[in-house]
């Protein structure tokens, strides 16, 4: 199944009125980046305490317990974001110091995506992961405002400058956000990961830099999310292919054609950025409620409709509960998280909900 780009994808009002809704969201970007922490809930602090005890190490590393104890830029970004959301400056600084020392490039301000403590060298692949870069920059910008640290603001701005310079390109009618520097651009297509569009971070990028190119990145990201949904449930795939000439969208080859581990973050980041349009939310809600809280799948095949033989972990359920699951109850706590990633998703939902009440 292939979806072609159009000027006004359902749910997002782009086109001549293109930036009205996006700018409305941007009107809240300054608040999100600078004052949301005043209303951070005790629940966020409590859940951060659990996350820190399970996944933070004294040297500043965040440990991915679901992937052999490796560390990566995404995890460092999440850890920094969680720490600043809880007002925990010492832990924030420890995580940032480690990321800067072990993952940040010497030739630009981006970060190698993975650290393997038992490997020599521990960073065998210098390729970046753009979501990790954006998460780290988001945390730095917020910490700069919260703790009155101009150096953090400058660090965030430097990262955003290099993301815009090195990780964006034109593909058909879109300016796209590359998942990393290497491996995603071919002669005829570009492969994207829509969950790398960390909307609160992209809004902050515009807020901090004032560069209007971020408007195009955000708007085109919304268009891609709206048009790049497939299968009976109209869900985004983990990996999306864009034809470099026509802009035609298809599920990327080389990965399972699934809505799963990566794409679960797409509705969460839209919700968190106040960009979850009604029609898009309705499609997610239809999917969540078809299965219900007790049978939500860990993945669904967008070409066959097949579902995973196991149910989704608590972090996936937390995302569903804030984006349209009718039977939503209390959010799961991190005490019962099976691993780092499920815990991270859950804590992100706690933060997004806390900021929703203070926006």
From TrEMBL:
Gene Ontology biological process terms from the UniProt entry: cellulose catabolic process
Superkingdom, taxonomy of origin: Bacteria
EC nos: 3.2.1.-
Reactions catalysed according to its record: Endohydrolysis of (1->4)-beta-D-glucosidic linkages in cellulose, lichenin and cereal beta-D-glucans
Keywords recorded for this protein, A-Z: Carbohydrate metabolism, Cellulose degradation, Glycosidase, Hydrolase, Polysaccharide degradation, Signal
Signal peptide: 1-38
InterPro entries: 6-hairpin_glycosidase_sf, 6hp_glycosidase-like_sf, Glyco_hydro_8, Glyco_hydro_8_CS, TAT_signal
Pfam family, one: Glyco_hydro_8
A GO molecular function held by the record: cellulase activity
Keyword Hydrolase: yes
Active-site residues, as the UniProt record annotates them: 131 (nucleophile)
Sequence similarity: Belongs to the glycosyl hydrolase 8 (cellulase D) family.
Name of protein: Glucanase
Taxonomic placement: Bacteria, Pseudomonadati, Pseudomonadota, Alphaproteobacteria, Acetobacterales
